[in-house]
Amino acid sequence: MRVGLVGAGFMGGVHLNAYAGIPQVEVVGVADARIESAVAGAEMVGARPYASYEELVAAEGVEVVDVCLPTAFHRDLAVRAAGEGRHVILEKPIARTMKDAQEILEAFSADGPRLFVGHVVRFFPAYVGIKQKIDAGDLGTVGVVRTSRRSPFLLGWNDWYADWRVSGGVLLDLVIHDFDFLRWALGEVERVYARGMLGREYNRLDYALVTLRFQSGAIAHVEGHWGYPAPFNYSIEVAGSKALLTVDSTEPAALQLIGGAPGEVPDLASGKSPYEKELEHFIHCIESGEAPIVQAQDACEALRIGLAATESVLTGESVTLGGSG
């Protein structure tokens, strides 16, 4: 499968490193407006560098376009690639606005090229283990979930992470991981309330605390922090009527089960990174025609939750969602 990657920044580098471990993929070109970044990215996988998407597809037979551009630029390139008959792997979030997201979905709605959105937490062994325990009923009825995701403030092209109009801030770029996972594990969100630093002068510091109420009655408290003065880390605690399950990336035993009937804790050992698993899965789905673990509509719903949380921060009011669709 011939892949062309567009956007050789931080996430582009992560994707290229993952592709290096997938033998059925040939990365034929890397495009970035900063040609030095394209050169560095191309060297990682033995590809050729280009200064633009146009140059890339004119020179190479690209079957799959991997888009790692700033969020606000997702729509234009995804829609264009779909019109040219190319499959698209789009780094999360799917888009900056629901209008853009819907336009992307419509571009891929007919039989033809396929769209895959990189909500990689679904491929982290610890989170897969949590989902398995919930689905098996080992935790009983889930009542309360607490998550936290903390990261240093990222630097990117034109400092785009610091431009809320482009990135959407910590809610759309970081906490959206938890929004997607929680919806995957617990079902549709009914109501959102959030507080955060949006609208204040945060100077590379962004923080949000979100409360989600699910249609099932479960409550999730979701914390996100950009500008954390230590390495990236995450944690999640799931409390059910039978048992409590916790994951903390800073602890040696990442997943711990407290209470409940004796049983196996999922094996978290893996020789592959979650990004390699994710991209390998997407390529397999293209080759086989199988449905992906992450549907494009799932990505839209995660964005919808993130935008509702943003609205709640700005208005100080809770926001009611109408379910998926």
UniProtKB/TrEMBL annotation:
Domain annotation Gfo/Idh/MocA-like oxidoreductase N-terminal: ranges: 1-119
Q: Where is the GFO/IDH/MocA-like oxidoreductase domain?
A: 130-244
GO molecular-function annotation terms?
A: nucleotide binding
A Pfam family assignment: GFO_IDH_MocA
Q: InterPro entries, alphabetically? A: Gfo/Idh/MocA-like_OxRdtase_N, Gfo/Idh/MocA_Oxidoreductases, GFO_IDH_MocA-like_dom, NAD(P)-bd_dom_sf
Q: What is this protein called?
A: NADH-dependent dyhydrogenase
Its ancestry begins with: Bacteria, Bacillati, Actinomycetota, Rubrobacteria, Rubrobacterales
